[in-house]
Design a protein that fits this description.
Rieske Iron-sulfur Protein, transmembrane, 2 domains, cell membrane, four-stranded antiparallel beta sheet, iron, 15 strands, five-stranded antiparallel beta sheet, iron-sulfur
């Protein structure tokens, strides 16, 4: 019986040759497909043989570094010139903030030009000679350290940073100016808040305006069991400072039967059982918006701090540190609810100046 696939059936001409040839005293396997082909002949760049081309590359690198410096100056100028609420149309992006667009564009150009200049410098002017280096042990022997330092000095010399002063000076200028972008951004850390956290837009005579309808509130608009959100008269939703002001002045208004109010000051500061408390939770500043009609408790949805509106809005559960501030209210001659002053303490989370 013949065996299919036996070695006897394979022609010897298709088997790897076991013959060896001797060449210059060494033995090589004939037709070895893994033989080291060696390095191709080195091809010199045009900058290596033509100084005029090298000068052009030098000027190109210097131009990129100079553009980076100009872009950094434009970044700082944009930060000063454009107001934060200015909107412009940029095709094809659409309507964007002029400040954000200019800051992103100028900083991107500044960083890109530094990178492009460094790459062009390395590809056209630094040494382009291939160097084969044998592997060495991981531990750093004294000889290795000496070789590294020698290679560093050689690389520094081949980079021509000492000879190409135009590139060196413009590169140092670009690298020195880019950090100024971050320094300018520190302006947003100030000015200090001073006593701004202690005051809101509420003052004597300010009407309580329904935040949903933008209409002034009358006592009959607030019924027992309802929860109404209000803002100060004159604060418009499209105002540039709306978010920062409503974060301090937002009110929640409820009506409670006067006999159910336990805290004397709360009763004195109310009008016919209508009480107004800050809507900003005293834990981390979330909006308090969940109201339980039967108990007159309000709950912050973020961390479940619970306040009793019948007892000075004191904390009865959760991580909040103190009661919600109350706003003293009354009714003006036209029958509208009005504030009788500002909050007597800062609204929102506790901060280090409270006391």
């Amino acid at each position: 019986m013949s065996q299919t696939g036996s070695n006897k059936d394979v022609s010897e001409e298709h088997l790897p040759s076991a013959r060896a040839t001797e060449h210059d005293g060494t033995v090589e396997a004939a037709g070895n497909p893994f033989a080291d082909p060696g390095l191709p002949p080195h091809e010199h760049r045009v900058q290596d043989i033509d100084e005029r081309a090298a000068k052009r590359s030098e000027r190109t690198v210097a131009l990129l570094f100079t553009v980076s410096m100009l872009a950094t100056v434009a970044f700082i100028a944009s930060y000063v010139i454009f107001p934060i609420d200015k909107i412009i149309y940029v095709f094809p992006v659409g309507h964007v903030s002029a400040l954000n667009f200019s800051l992103g564009l100028t900083l991107g150009v500044a960083l890109f030009c530094i990178g492009a200049g460094a790459v062009h410098w390395a590809r056209t002017l630094m040494s382009d000679v291939e160097v084969a280096d044998e592997r060495h042990p991981i531990e750093a022997e004294p000889e290795v350290k000496a070789k590294v330092m020698a290679d560093f000095r050689q690389g520094a010399a081949e980079s021509a940073i000492g000879r190409r002063k135009l590139i060196r000076n413009t590169m140092f200028g670009a690298l020195a100016m880019v950090p100024l972008s971050g320094v300018v951004l520190l302006r947003d850390l100030g000015p200090l808040p001073e006593d701004k956290l202690r005051h809101t837009l509420w003052e004597k005579g300010k009407l309580l305006v329904n935040q949903n309808t933008n209409e002034p509130l009358r006592p009959e608009d607030v019924v027992v069991g309802s929860l109404t959100f209000a803002k100060p008269e004159g604060l418009e939703d499209d105002a540039h400072d709306f978010q920062s002001e409503i974060a301090k002045a937002a009110l929640m208004i409820v009506r409670i039967q006067p006999e159910d109010i336990k805290d004397k000051r709360e009763l004195d500061w109310s009008h016919e059982g209508i009480v107004a408390f800050s809507k900003i939770c005293t834990h981390v500043g979330c909006p308090v918006s969940l109201y339980e009609q039967q108990t007159h408790h309000v709950l912050c949805p973020c961390h479940q701090s619970t306040f009793d509106l019948t007892d000075g809005a004191r904390v009865i559960f959760g991580p909040a540190g103190h009661a919600l501030p109350q706003l003293r209210i009354g009714v003006n001659k036209d029958g509208y609810l009005e504030a009788l002053g500002d909050f007597t303490e800062p609204v929102g989370p506790s901060f280090w100046e409270r006391g």
